[in-house]
Fold:
Amino acid sequence: MLVLFVLSYVSSVGQQLRTKFGDVYYEPNFYLQKYGGPEGSPYLTKKFSPAKIEGFQKTYLVRFNAVEGTIEVLMGEKQVVVLDESKTYSVTLQDGSNRTYETHRFINSKGKTEVSFFELLDAIKGRKLYIKESKKFMKKVQAQGYADEQPAHFKTMRREFYISKNPGAPLLRIPQKMKSFISFFDHNSKAMKAYIKEHKLSIDKPDDLVKIINFHYTQHG
Structure:
């Protein structure tokens, strides 16, 4: 009877977790088993941070899996829930940084639609600008010739910028080469080039990018 009660309780707790946030839950260190104990972690920050999730009054502990593009919520000492990818969430950190992350569909560099989390940089004339940070799992490489063995590890990828041009549509990746960048915004390229040059701005820097895009939409709406 005791065994049946325990199993019933665990099942009930699991169902509650799935109903509240998502349908995947596991131990916080599950990634060590999944990837075979690599160097580093798949997270932006391995430690959970306090945060407010829009639509919920309670403060939760969260962290961001930069390999899988998911947000994890710590529900108990050994219970982590992954936020449901079919829903849209807005998560604001309460660690003093006040950074806000949102989950969205997006068009990746290969033209495919995926779901991930993005840090909100700015809201511009009804459009939102985001930054996407990601990591990639690199498998162990055996030593060959003069080349040393490379242990399995997580590689931090180049950050990317995305924008919401149309409400409800997937986010679009902003090109990071100047010619393609100018073409992406298409209107009055000469004015944009002149503004970037005059103010010595870089399209790779978040603060500069906010200024450039603000300039563009202020000019063209």
